Amino acid sequence: MTPTLSRRLVAELLGTAFLVATVIGSGIAASRLSPGDTGLQLLENSLATGAALVALIIAFQPVSASFNPVVTLVERAIGRIGTTEAVAFVVAQVVGGCLGAIAANVMFGLDAVAVSGHTRDGGGVLLGEAVATFGLVLVVFGALRSDRIETVAYAVGGYIAAAYWFTSSTSFANPAVTLARTLSDTFAGIAPSSVAAFVALQLVGGALAALAVRFLHPAAAEEAR
């Protein structure tokens, strides 16, 4: 039985909330447990995020497990979902992300909302976001086309954990997560002034990946029609 739209929206909201809570919460924990060691902090942050993504995708995949506006927009571009669904999913993801950020702040005894002052800019960093998002979309839709769909969770979790390290931006690769991370002035935060460029490059990476997906997996586009 196909899940109703309301159930899918709740799944997207909850999944994105837990994802952001993991990113921010593990970043706060890492900075407290390993003060002065940025490399160790990033390792702790990346391992927690990758592991949480595996668990969340496995848990929510029977209902809906995109958790990312770029993935949702690519799904719309190749015809897997309609425009109304896509818009509703993006709203749910953004709201869920913000709730996750607030929850993480409060859990660690911080103000519910504290605007980040962590500026992230520069050509290399922005290129890193485009590369991270491009790769993520390829991994998601490539794994979906495999004979074992249960591997999607492990592929995505592993990719994101690795992309924290091989991209200069530490792989946000998600507009909803990016917006939510402005609400926490902690290790994982991003200043509001950096968001527009990050999201723009994420969309560029996603658009290029959508073209690559259509080329690499033409059957997916045909089946969606």
UniProtKB/TrEMBL annotation:
GO cellular component: plasma membrane
Membrane topology summary: Multi-pass membrane protein
Gene Ontology molecular functions: water channel activity
InterPro entries according to UniProt: Aquaporin-like (IPR023271), Aquaporin_transptr (IPR034294), MIP (IPR000425)
Xref: Pfam families: MIP
Highest taxon of the lineage: Bacteria
Residue ranges of the TM segments: 9-30, 50-74, 86-110, 122-144, 151-167, 187-216
Keyword annotations: Membrane, Transmembrane, Transmembrane helix, Transport
Subcellular locations according to the entry: Membrane
Similarity-based family: Belongs to the MIP/aquaporin (TC 1.A.8) family.
The name this protein goes by in its record: Glycerol uptake facilitator-like aquaporin
Species of origin: Nocardioides kongjuensis
